[in-house]
Every structure is written in structure tokens, then in C-alpha cells.
Amino acid sequence: MARILIVEDEAALREDIALYLHAEGHDVHQAACGEDVDALVAGDGDIVVLDVNLPGENGFDIATRLRRSSSLGIIMLTARRLEDDRLTGLDAGADIYLSKPVSFRELAAHVRALARRVATAAPASEPPTVWLIDRTSWRLTAPSGAEVALSKLEMRLLLSLAESPDGQVDRNRLARTIYDGDLGHDSRALDALVRRLKAKVERTAGAVLPIQALYAAGYVFSAPLRVAAVPSPPA
Asked: What are phi and psi of 75, to 5 degrees?
């Protein structure tokens, strides 16, 4: 049994795939957009069946982000049939690229093969490396589980880095985001903010915050950094 997330905005197709894979014995979850993908990965998900044309973040960007920090299986399922699109998907980190309409039997066979690969590749006791931002409580959680309270400017800095596809943001964009578009700030203010945050994290959580300066460019967060999913209100 694999834990699978189907990310597809066409509800009827998503339901049909979920029912078929559930009948195959898998633990299947559904989402209409990419917002719930990180929650699956944080919960030890195995495989994502991912559409390309999604509202908000598209499938190519989601695959790229997932592949940076995870060995889970990625199956791209899309109506795009051009070779360039298929190569883009594979370059983004997809294991398999299937064009719609797809045979559910073929999809299930790929799921079984990927589930075996993921189980074989999974490290036995690898420590967690993910840093997590909570928008609600304004806290940063280190891989060890230690929490650090964040100021408004620190939240803006970390959210900018987390929401960048490659974890890298240039100085001007950071300044506009952190200081409400006011580019009149001394450029050293941004560097001072980063230094204070790194010192706070080391003092509070006993960990080194992996923000690195890029020469004449900006900053990059060099470890997996995710934003905690906001719970849905009760029905």
C-alpha cells in the first residue's frame, strides 16, 4: 500500500482515479490545487499524481519544488502531449509523464512500481531536515522541533524565501516585500535583519539557520523550508 495524493482540478477525473487506486489497496487523498502537497510530504507521503494545468502554482513548479527535498514518486498526468512539455516535466523531477486520457490499469502499474522504488530508497533513520513556518502563530519550527517566535519583518523574509521556487530571492524583491515597497532603506538593513534572525534561531533553537548570502544577488534558504497548511474550517 502506498500513500498517494492526487492533485487534479477536474473533480470527476480526480474522483475516478481515487476510487480506482483505493480499490487497489492504496491510501488515497485528493486535492484540487498544489496547496495540500506539502502536507502530504510532511506526513510521509509516497506518490503524487500531479496535473500540470492547476489553479495557482502549476504542476511543473510543484514538481521542481518537491524534488529539491524529497524522493517521493511523481507522476505527471496531463493533456499536454508535446515532446517539449514531456521533457519539461521530466526535467522538473517527474518520474513518469502520462498524457490524458490515461488507462487506469497503466497508471496503477506505474504506482506499484514507484511504491517499490520509494520503499527501497527511503533511509532507515534519516533525521528530519525540514524547517516549517506557521503563518497563524508567527513561529518557525526547526528540524529538531524547537520553535522560534518571529517578528513581522522576519516572517516576511522567511515567507519570501519559502515561496520562491528555488528558495532564492534577489535583494530588491526582498526589500520591496519586507519594507512595504520602500526601497529607501539602507541596503545594510536587510543584512542586519538576517544576522539578527540567525542569532535568534541559534540562541533559541540551538540550530544554524541555513540562510546564505549570494554575492551581488540576494539570499537563499539552502534547506527545505515549508509553510504549514492552514486547517480547513469544519463543514
From this structure: -110, 120
pTM given for the model: 0.51
Q: pLDDT tens digits for 99-140?
A: 888 889 999 999 988 888 776 655 544 455 789 999 889 999
Instruction: Give the span between the Cα atoms of 62 and 226, in whole angstroms.
Output: 12
Q: pLDDT tens for residues 135-170?
A: 889 999 998 889 999 999 999 999 999 988 777 888
Residue 164 lies in a domain: yes
User: Given the DSSP bridges, would you call strands 211-214 and 218-221 parallel, antiparallel or unpaired?
Assistant: antiparallel
Exposed, middle or buried, 181 (CB in 10 Å: 0-12/13-18/19+)?
A: exposed
What does each C-alpha distance from 126 to 109, 118, 121, 143 come to in angstroms? 29, 14, 12, 12
What CATH number does the domain containing 170 carry?
A: 1.10.10.10
CA distance 75 to 89: 9
pLDDT confidence of residue 182? 59
E-strand ranges in 107-224 read 131-134, 139-141, 147-149, 168-170, 211-214, 218-221
Domain range for 14: 3-121
In angstroms, the CA 143 to CA 131 distance is 6
